[in-house]
Amino acid sequence: MKISAFRTIILGVSFLVLLPACNKLSDLKNQYYVSHAEAFPSEGLASHAEHRVGEPGSHKDQNHQVDHHDGHQDEHRSEHHGAHKIVVTTPVAKDVVSTQQFVCQIHSWRHIEVCALEGGYLETIAVQEGQRVKQGDLLFKILPTLYEARLESDMAEAQLAQIELQNTERLFEQNIVAQPEVALAKAKLAKAQAKVNLAQAELNFTTLRAPFDGIVDKQHEQQGSLIEEGDVLTTLSDNSTMWAYFNVPEARYLQYEASPDKDNVKVELVLADGNKFPHAGTIGAIEADFNNETGNIAFRGDFPNPQHLLRHGQTGTVLLSRVVANAIVIPQRATFEILAKKYAFVVGDDGVAQQREIVVQSEQDDIYLIKDGLDVNEKIVLEGIRQVRDGEHVQYEFQAAEDVLRSLKYHAE
């Protein structure tokens, strides 16, 4: 009896513990059948769910939730369509400043290496790194002792030759020697004088002076260093005018040469910090040969540098700007791209949208200059491009091109 009573108590406690879990499982099954009744009405799941609920008002509550969910989806769907209305505008013809950008390397128009002309010990360094110098200023001096001694020796030889010539001329006047003896004495003197000039030049080479106004660069040797002929001591840059070299693709080179107003192209320089250099430049030269590996040709822009802001070796961006008269302009976001070709939807008078390929002449921040494919009398889809299909009739709102251009902010989709 005690064992039977104990089993009864255990079964009762287990039932009380498992009862909430069973009720929860039943509710989950009912929700499963109701949700599938909405997605698959043809499978008869709704009636099965209603049979499984088995409680008054349960199926009604579920239907109320499904209806509320459908209504919310319909409301969201209508708001979604309302937010993506189709807007149409027209291309516009206007004078546009077309600007092309090219990365450039900036060089001084005169930039040389200052090299030792003779070997020896570096006795004097008369300038500091980064110092501005004038033409003729002393830069370096090599210990001249050896060259001074050589010069004195050659000068003595020249004096000896001069005395011998004078003696020979006196003897010639006394008819003691013949004319050829005088000629030999003169030749000997000329040779000695040439050695003096050579020794003087070698002595002068020990003193290095600035060949033009400029800025001294890093010093490669220190005072007291033993240097050899040809060693680079420093570099000197004349930054009064700067040359900016940039590479131009062949197609743009041909456009530049074919332009009737190429001499009126505005040349500007943007520095590494994003600011424009205050002085405009000119196209100074175009190199003779194309680079066969890159297909580019080098242009050179010349910029005055009165404040010496630019230095040799800087980088920047050259801007070539010219005015394109009556250019056909459209927003970039009115176009789309398929396989590297650009298209726009053109809406006819019948309201039918037709996909059309366009050829872009150049691009700016948020507009395209059209070379071929559109004219100002046509309408193009501006917003809602993703909702339009080729050959489809569309309902749209029209927005004036002037208003569109004033508020452009975005690129093409």
UniProtKB/TrEMBL annotation:
Domain Multidrug resistance protein MdtA-like beta-barrel: start-end pairs: 259-320
Coiled-coil annotated spans: 151-209
Stretches assigned to the Multidrug resistance protein MdtA-like barrel-sandwich hybrid domain: 112-232
Cleavable signal peptide: none
Domain of life: Bacteria
Stretches the record annotates as Disordered: 49-81
Domain YknX-like C-terminal permuted SH3-like, chain residue ranges per copy: 327-395
InterPro entries membership: MdtA-like_b-barrel, MdtA-like_BSH, RND_pump_MFP, YknX-like_C
SUPFAM superfamilies given in the database record: HlyD-like secretion proteins
Alphabetically ordered keywords of this record: Coiled coil
PANTHER family: ACRA/E-RELATED COMPONENT OF DRUG EFFLUX TRANSPORTER (PTHR30158), MULTIDRUG RESISTANCE PROTEIN MEXA (PTHR30158:SF23)
NCBIfam families according to UniProt: RND_mfp
Record-stated family: Belongs to the membrane fusion protein (MFP) (TC 8.A.1) family.
Protein name, entry field: Multidrug resistance protein MdtA
